[in-house]
Amino acid sequence: MKHKPKLGQNFLSDPAAAIAIVDALGNLTNRTVVEIGPGAGAITEILATRARRLIAIELDRSLAAHLSEQFPGIEVLETDILTVDLSALRNGEEKLRVVGNLPYYITSPILSHLFQHHAAIETAVVMMQREVADRVAASPGSRDYGVLSATAQLYTRIERVLDLPPSAFMPPPEVHSTVLRLTMRPRFAELGIAPEAFLVFLRQSFAQKRKMLAKNLRAAGFDPGRIMQALQESGIAPTARAEEIDLERMAALWRNLTRQ
Ligand code: SAM
Question: Mean pLDDT throughout 227-249?
Fold first, then answer.
């Protein structure tokens, strides 16, 4: 099969890994599954035998046509995943299960897209470059913790499913890969934060990762005196960097800073 590197086409060639990925989605007998980037169908062929309804979203025209022929029982949408209103794919109240060996060049935008549609999704089992998975799953205080970790952990519970070497793909990519299972459980209400405003605040806090949090917040336009007071009220050292702060204290800081 010809591949297009620009579209991140590295096809899974390890059948045991494909089974493990689908197994991580749980029992699919009564479920609607959305597959992102089905490609040549390594995961699709297992899903097609297990899911009640399967919607496969593939941007590449020839691959999409091939999938429709090969799996007449599934729905193939030939389009960019980032333009798909996932919430509109639900049947009534049923939540979607999402799966995909992601096109790595747009991993972060795809994750943001899934988070935006969190109310329509129960679980997502997604493969990405190992270093990106490390950032998604990183704990506060570790080198990898950043805005991607904080955002992912605000929306989901994260589990590592498996790691795969380049040799598990055709053609082999230059990087190792990791499959994560993301179970949606947004923490906004529990932490007393407004989603949109808090996500902006996170981006401001991590704007210059190596700089002190207080400095980043000053650059974002917060009043210096107010910053120092809110840091103290939230139990955060004045010299702390955003990467050291867990979500509970970050939320407290936002509440204290934005209190009228
Ligand atoms: N699932 C297959 C597998 O595991 O063998 C293929 C995975 S390959 C890493 C990524 C797939 O995503 C490719 O088939 C590529 O054409 C498709 N793709 C790339 N960009 C896309 C986009 N914006 N929306 C939907 N699919 C996309």
Answer: 97
User: Across the chain, which distance is largest between two alpha carbons, in Å?
Assistant: 65
Domain extents in the chain: 5-186, 191-258
Predicted confidence band of residue 1 (pLDDT cuts 50, 70, 90)? low
Using the mean position of ligand 1's atoms as its centre, give its distance from the Cα of residue 54 in Å: 16
CATH class for the domain made up of 191-258: mainly alpha
CA-37 nearest atom, ligand 1:
12
Nearest CA to ligand 1 atom 14: 39
The CATH number for 5-186, chosen from 3.10.450.50, 3.40.50.300, 3.40.50.150, 3.40.50.1220, is 3.40.50.150
Determine the Cα–Cα distance for residues 83 and 81; give it in Å rounded to an integer: 5
Instruction: Give yes or no for residue 164 CB within 6 A of ligand 1.
Output: no
Rounded CA-CA distance 175/237 in Å is 38
CA distances from 77 to 73, 74, 96, 169, 246 (A): 13, 10, 16, 24, 39
Q: Does ligand 1 lie within 6 Å of residue 9's CB atom?
A: yes
pLDDT of res. 240: 97
Tell the residue nearest (CA) to atom 18 of ligand 1.
37
Half-sphere exposure of 121 (CA within 13 A, CB side): 29
In contact, 87 and 117? CB cutoff 8 Å? yes
Q: How far is the CA of 127 from the centre of ligand 1 (A)?
A: 11
Closest-CA residue, ligand 1 atom 12, reads 37
